[in-house]
Structure formats: structure tokens, C-alpha cells
């Protein structure tokens, strides 16, 4: 099919005492489910390394030029799939898999304090929860296998629909800005 939408979804590799990272398991389940014939889905397992992420994510944007890139992570506090409306740059105190932590505790030293998604995650959440899919997601304003793959699938499909609506109003995501300020 011509003019397929490109979507990249990432999950993290195992870290610390966790032999398996459920974010990558969920992304693999999403890959199995797919996003429909109109979407060219690429998945990528991301190293839990500050420096590696800083190089990998911009290279994914450059190579694939996707309409949408979704980063899946794990939270010990989350009870549902949680959509983050913004990503924070500061407050990273944990060592990565190379036993490194930035002295500044920032992902990107020159980056802004917060990057807000151009998509309305409340709208995505409402659309998924009001559907008959039987999955529940929530939204977090501050940056968890069961139905995770299906919940991811539903959320990303709704994000693509919102992007399509935004396209008609010239509200394109500024990829250049995002390349400069990717979070890990």
C-alpha cells in the first residue's frame, strides 16, 4: 500500500535486577498485533544508557522519518498503561546499565525543562476508554503483560487519528525540535 504511515515504538532493555523489561515485552506484543495495513510499524529495543539514547533516538528519526514515535517505559507505580503528556529533562539520579549518571542529572544539558507532546493525551485516553476494546488507559502529567499490547495498539491508533486531524490544521509535530531535545 502506497503512502503508509510510519510509526516507531521503542521499549527498554532489562536493567538492574530485572531480567526482563515489561516495556519491551509489551512492544513485542504490539509488533505481533500490528497497527493495521496502513501503518508501517518499526520497533526498537533501547539500551538503558544515557549516552546511547542520545545518539539512537535522533538516528531513528533521521532514518525512518516517522509520523509518530512512541517511547514505552516501566513505572513501578502505574496500574494501567499511562500516557505521558510531557517529558522532563531533570531529576535523573539513577545509574544506567553502564553505571553512569549525568552530573547535571539532566538527559540533555542544553535541553528545556519539559517537552510537551503535540498530541492531546486526554483526548487519546478518552477515546480508548470509551471504545468497546475492553482496555483502560490513563494520563499522567508527570513522567506497566496482560493487555498492555492491546492498550498500546489502541492508544497509538488514536494518536494517529489525532495527527491526521492536526494535519488538516497545519499543526505538524516539529521533528527538528524533538530531535534536539529527545529524552531517555
What report would you give on this structure?
With 184 residues, this protein is α/β, with parallel strands linked by helices. It has one domain (5-180): Peptidase C15, pyroglutamyl peptidase I-like (Aminopeptidase), CATH 3.40.630.20. The chain is built from five helices and seven strands, in the order E-H-E-H-E-E-E-E-H-E-H-H. It has helices at 22-33, 50-64, 121-129, 148-168, 175-180, and strands spanning 5-12, 39-46, 68-71, 81-84, 86-88, 114-116, 137-140. The longest helix is centred in the C-terminal third of the chain and has 21 residues, at 148-168. It is globular and about 45 Å long.
What is the count of β-strands?
Answer: 7
Number of helices: 5
The major pleated sheet works out as: 3 strands, parallel
The CATH architecture comes to 3-Layer(aba) Sandwich
Any descriptors?
184 residues, alpha/beta, Aminopeptidase, three-stranded parallel sheet, two-stranded parallel sheet, 5 helices, 7 strands, disordered C terminus
How are the elements arranged and paired?
Elements (H helix, E strand, L loop, with lengths): L4 E8 L9 H12 L5 E8 L3 H15 L3 E4 L9 E4 L1 E3 L25 E3 L4 H9 L7 E4 L7 H21 L6 H6 L4
Parallel strand pairs: 1-2, 1-3, 4-7
Antiparallel strand pairs: 5-6
Helix pairs in contact: 1-4, 3-4
Brief account:
This protein is of the alpha/beta class. It is built from five helices and seven strands. Strand 1 (5-12), helix 1 and strand 2 form a beta-alpha-beta unit.
